[in-house]
TrEMBL record:
Domain of life of the source: Eukaryota
Record keywords, A-Z: Membrane, Transmembrane, Transmembrane helix
InterPro entries on file: UDP-glycosyltransf_plant
Transmembrane segments: 6-27
A GO MF label: UDP-glucosyltransferase activity
Keyword match Membrane: yes
Keyword Transmembrane helix set for record: yes
Organism: Rhynchospora pubera
Protein name: Glycosyltransferase
Amino acid sequence: MKDTVVLYAGMGVGQLVPMVALAKLFLRHNLAVTIVAVDPPMTWGSSSKVISSFASANPSISFHLLPTIPIPAEISHCPFDTMFDILRGGNSNLLDFLVSISKTTSIRAVVIALFCTATLDVTKKLGIPTYFFMTTSASDVAASLQAVFSIPYRLPENSGNTGYRNGGRYGGIRYLERKYREISGKYRVSVTGRYGCR
């Protein structure tokens, strides 16, 4: 079976350019690469045309678009909270996809975009090593991690009843903090040049 790395770009197309650049690095090391994205709800615009154009331009990389997830009934006013809900709701589709391709390939790792922390539940269940991919500078990574670990303790406990998983106005930050703490001590930080390329 071919060793494969799955790159999970999450929802939308913002992470696709850097993920394709990272995929090309893995290809140089004789690894197969599959880039997975979630098709956003119709009101946000479909990613299928963009994914098709990336696939045409990069035939050595496999692309897979997970089905659209319905927007939760209790929609938050915060787009980040809505994104977390949709990505978390898509875990079953991601699980099915990973199980399906693992019958013909050996998944060596899953690399996820920053806001795809819900994926950790899936990869933990399957025992697949998972890594975060951030395309920002090292100082941005440090500031982001510092914010996620310190801000939740400075936020008021009762910050409103809207937000991710009833976490209030700052539910998204609290959710990231919980997920990052679950993997605390398992970080591997590698600082490279633009788009992760040297």
